[in-house]
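User: Can you fold this complex?
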Amino acid sequence: EDQVTQSPEALRLQEGESSSLNCSYTVSGLRGLFWYRQDPGKGPEFLFTLYSAGEEKEKERLKATLTKKESFLHITAPKPEDSATYLCAVQADWGSGGGADGLTFGKGTHLIIQP
Amino acid sequence: GAGVSQSPSNKVTEKGKDVELRCDPISGHTALYWYRQSLGQGLEFLIYFQGNSAPDKSGLPSDRFSAERTGGSVSTLTIQRTQQEDSAVYLCASSFRVGYTFGSGTRLTVV
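Assistant: Here's the predicted assembly.
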């Protein structure tokens, strides 16, 4: 069974204080690892897809990295508008026997950036 | 449309009543997914459509839940004889190749 564990559950940072969010996963075969941002009362907003270990992607103050066991979302010099819940999800590879075609999500990291 | 549209945005229903939730995906997106998000829990996969067919219904929690998709577009999630544990935000997402686009969800409250 595919599993995704995110840590920490919540993180409070000062504006400009860089940090990293962790996503540990187990999947029989990885088709893709996804990062989403979710604001209160809204659906998740797509950020990144990573496909293989060693891959990195960047967008503004965010950088996502991937190993065979975990992914990190690095936030550099965050601003208050980066406050949100960040969700990590995995999708199993075709034919891996992983079952559902849908994404398996972690419970998220609730990030608060204080001015 | 420009995004995934879900309706209603909020629904309060009495225990035992049936409800229908609607999802209008992005035009041209062949894949459509339903998820459920409960307070303090992660997103729970319910069902996946490719075109009008549902190759994966493994996430539907009971036979009170059903879904259909017509014309390769609009999808309806139906919950019969609602129970209090069905209270959650129901999210729909559509996809063409990679990267889902989610709607804002329907918040269902069963009283």
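The two ends of chain A are 41 Å apart (CA to CA). The domain at 3-114 of chain A is CATH 2.60.40.10 (Immunoglobulin-like).
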